[in-house]
Input
Amino acid sequence: MKPSWYISRRTLLRGAGVAMALPFFDQMVAPKANAQALVPLRFAATFVPNGVYLPGFFPATEGVNYATSPILMPVEAIRNDVLILSGLDNSVAQPNGNMHTAGIAAFLTGAFEAGGPSLDQVIAQKTKGMTPFPSLEFHGGEEGIEGCEQPCYLHETLAWSAAGQGIAPERNPQAAFNRLVGSIPATVPSSTEPTPPVVDPKLAIRRSVLDAVQADATTLSAKLGPTDKAKLDAYLTAVREVEQRLAVGVTPGGGTTCSAPSSAPAPFADDYPARIKAFMDVTALALQCDLTRAVTFMLAGWESRHVFSFLGLKDQHHIAYSHHENNPTLVDGCTKIDRWEVEQFVYLATLLKGAMEPNGQSVLDNSALLFGSEVSDGNAHSRDNMPILVAGKLGGAIQSGRHLKATGPLANLYLSILQSFDPVASKFGNSTAALNLKA
Amino acid sequence: MLGSAMSCNVDGDPGRVTLRRLTGPQYDNTVRDLLGDASYPSSAFPKDDSFEADLMGFSTLLFEKYEAAAERIVTDAWAREAAGQQPPSAKLWTCTPVTDATCGAQVVKDFARRAFRKPVSDADLAPYLSLLGTVPGAEGVQAALQALLLSPQFLFRVELDQVATSLTPHTLSPHELATRLSYLVWGSTPDAQLLAKADAGQLSEPSAITSELTRMLADPKASALTEDFGREWLGLDAISKATPDPVLFPEGTSALLADMREETRQFVSEIFLGSAPLSGLLGADFTYLNDRLAAHYGLPSPGAGWTRVTLPVGPRRGMLGQASMLTATSTASRTSAVRRGKWIATRMLCSSPPPPPPNVGGLKPEAAAYTSERQRLEVHRADPQCASCHQLIDPLGLAMENFDALGRFRNAYADGTPIDPSGDVGPGKAFQTLEQMRELVAADSRFDSCVSSELSTYALGRALRAEDACLGAQLAEGVKAGAPLSKALEIVATSRAFTWRRGEAQGALP
Output
């Protein structure tokens, strides 16, 4: 059986020069043999900085009949696919330190200063070898922003492969797209039988180069002390992963239909909303085509100097609007930003709701898409009652379409998501018990 | 008189720096010097470095970026070679024709020595020479060169111990020391002269290190100190992220912002590479201006282009009076005394206050009624949760309120409320003006130890620890006595912490 991400590079390129009225076109239908047997589950975390205007976020009542809130209005369009979770905390970010930096390092790890792997990386370990990319990491904000008392790298990513081992994210949606498309074998997709691979001389050279540096690194490793050796091991792991992807025979879990954009997006260096949308498109492509099962996407850094001028606002999110000091004009600006961010999340969920699996379910039905932030109320830097949304049903593990009031650390939610990927998982970060998402 | 660093160097633990991967700027400078590539390839890499070293883990994404860069860099350099345009110091074709097997191997070997910054053994070379057997002709040589740019011995600054797990201190190898020196001053790979000195074992004496330092500081490549050390320590990047509101501040054009950045770059460059004391960052009597920036400051035109200008005694002197710093610490619509105060506390005094505790409400709504930053912050400090820390940083920032969010001088706010810059830099250190505040900061012993700690962190690739107390004290003493950066670098570069290392005990990792 062909890999589910088996869309032809040639097919993609053929579309590249054609002016398309629509950004997407149906690309191919994968072979359906055994498709129902193994439906892949996916996880993506989307992160927005500086919390939200909390009084405008959560609905007043619990359950399925909640009345929506000013910030969650965009959710109405896919109301039945979204779980609103209140009451969870990110308190593990405490002892001390900058609330934002510490909050980000703890957000997906459930550990102080990223003292353990993040949820996406634990999932990536479980799904390794099933897709070309164990995980993907994106960042929509600008680089090198000030504002850390703790080491700045702690707030540059959500993804940690191990304690303190951050994965630096891609910030250019065009490069992200090209990398995904570049992973797709250049063979013809029309037949259900694999065609003989085209011998690519450049690929052979690339493999030889990888062999050479691995041999060098292995010799070097024997001469190093424990910390240096661990650092070089991370290098060797990366080289091997690239090599494995070049090797034929990566077998993913199941078949999906798969839509791909007709051409690569622009880098959108100066157009923030276009850049965010492009990353959402790339995320949808990766999940839909089963190129990965785990994605993290930070929409921006907390101290971003970006101004939401397209929302009619005049100043930066963090210092002006999230610290609104209860000034009504600023509260209104903060609410606008928050609602726009929820809209972007809903956009991603909607793309995946429209993407059908071979078994007739949507990709969203088999995904958990997380929306969250490093603090809850941006004005107060609080870390209880975190603003959390989960879109998708994760193959039936999540009963969505309601507002659930919960208690405990965020890690309890993560543990219950993880159990869909690893049924025997009993602990994640500072979890105390898995959250019951079905009832 | 400054004592010799050697007095600190009797014995003791030289400390240990973890294997360091080249930072983005170091990668760019290195391929520029090795291969004549001036394209800043790291602009496509994921941002993962800060100050002294790489901080993130290694990822497949990063390796793929290195692969793409190596392929392009070698292809371009090869084309320049073929066209006879490769700079002599970056020459790849050290023999001809490269398609000849012996010559091809020679080219790989010569480049490996420069890329690895040391003499290469047959064992080092074997994996790369084997590529010449796998891939025929010139393509094989190019593949080997690409592979060398992906080698851990290129991407990381490798330093070895005879016994990796022995804690017995030993001197660095001459090539390891040459590499530390060149990345310290140039942010780049050692040049031919430095490698030759290392080959000849002529770097062991402090006088040899000092004389190389002097030569290196006179080289234009020493601008890396401003670009890398200055960028991180002083936060020089932040100005390029500033976004003044175009309606409130129509004067804040991208051209003006670029001028602001350029002023500070030239100013810091003269402080770092000239003979001025490092405290000149706070109060030097000069700056660099062009017409547009001089007009912005309300100063007379300095003449054509960028000109060194002597500034009268007053608030404009030093970095605290430069529009770059003043704009970068403002929001898009107003000044922020908190950010400005934090900049001084963090960068000049290394005494950043702890961050706000959780669940503080931020400024109370009544603060919005005030136009004066001082009155707003007084509301803030009325909250005892906030007061203890904001008492430290607010006065420093309020002393700069005479500069607006684009760094223009003003005596009053738009509604006529007069600005009062007075405050204190701690108990018994009251000031009336920004000039007095600057002098108090420059005279503060925390300034000396702050500069000392920032510089040694940059130079050693690690934070100062208890065993470095002697070096730290010596550096701080030097800064206090008015040492220029060159002297401070000499103290670090001849220290035991810089010239020695040790292994690491087995089981140091969990």
Notes: Residues 42 and 127 of chain A are 10 Å apart (CA to CA).
